[in-house]
Amino acid sequence: MQSIYIAISMILLSFSPKTEPPPAAHGITQISIYKGPCFGYCPVYDASFFSDGNATFEGKEPRRSTIPPDYPLGKNIGNISKEKFDSLAALVEKVKFFEMSDHIEQVTDLPSTKITVVRNDTTKSVKIYGLRPSEEMKKLMSTLEQVAKETKWKPMPDKSE
To answer: How many domains does the chain have?
Structure first.
């Protein structure tokens, strides 16, 4: 008798409407890193990674430098895999990003970094200015910098064309 109920339940479930898969458990939809200028050659860019796989990158000329930057200038687009985004989101959760202070400052005249994360319609930014962020923040910063460096960027199409 129980096997009949199971069979009927399976048949009924097969006719139920298909629904969208639930969003990732972390709820993170965007992770961004901004690298600010210094008084020499420091990379200056803004990179954003989105849960749908899209990515944007805007590279700017470093101050007081005659050396061309090793990153693309101007507005660029790219893609990252769902697995890569989910690993970034897992790192954000692991370092307890949403519990961190909004400012980490120790020294002046150094480049600043700002990391912004959007989770469940809540935006949190942490500005890092100095040499001694926590080990967790160092790991998050270096991982985001590495993903920005490894992403295949292409110039954003001109909307006037």
So the answer is: 1
